[in-house]
Amino acid sequence: MEMIKPRENPCLIVVKLKRWERKECKPNSLPVLHKMHVKVGDTIKVISGRDKGKIGEISKIFKHNSTIVVKDINLKTKHMKSRGEDQPGQIIKIEAPIHSSNVMLYSKEKEVTSRVGHKVLDDGKKVRYLIKTGEILDSDENWKKLKEAAKEKTEVAAAAPAADTGAAS
Predict the structure, then answer these.
(1) Which domain holds residue 64?
(2) Which residues is 31 bridged to in the sheet?
(3) Smallest Cα–Cα separation from 59: which of 27, 97, 26?
(4) Confidence (pTM)
(5) Max Cα–Cα distance, the chain, nearest Å
(6) Which residues does the annotated region (Disordered) include (predicted)?
(7) Residue pLDDT, tens place only, 43-78
(8) 120-147 pLDDT, tens digit each
């Protein structure tokens, strides 16, 4: 007796059933963190996308998906629902992340974008530098500026709740 095989439905649509995607992992199940050419505090220029040509400073980095958040770039509108009578609904602008491949490092002095290079100085310190201009990015002065800015930011954040509690009483 001959067995009849049912035909495959040509209109069959394959649907992805999982709501999440498996992240790329190492053998020990830790997520792969991608090496990035930019760091927090770097000045960059957006080279593609809606904000092409804009210049800003990096405020956050997400290594697991190679995205960055830049101050005043890629602003998205978020509608906040009211939470009772004390907090009314509002519309706020938040900075959304963009992919690191869509930005290039920018030199404020020469006003030019450049790729990043790595070299070892005479004292044995490995630093990043802009290839076009030769400007060193990882200098001690830059680190001091970043540390001072972070310290001021934490002081302002610590002072803000104290001011709020004083106004409430």
Answers:
(1) 43-80+89-163
(2) 25
(3) 97
(4) 0.68
(5) 91
(6) 150-169
(7) 999 999 999 999 999 999 998 889 999 999 999 999
(8) 989 888 899 999 999 998 877 777 777 7
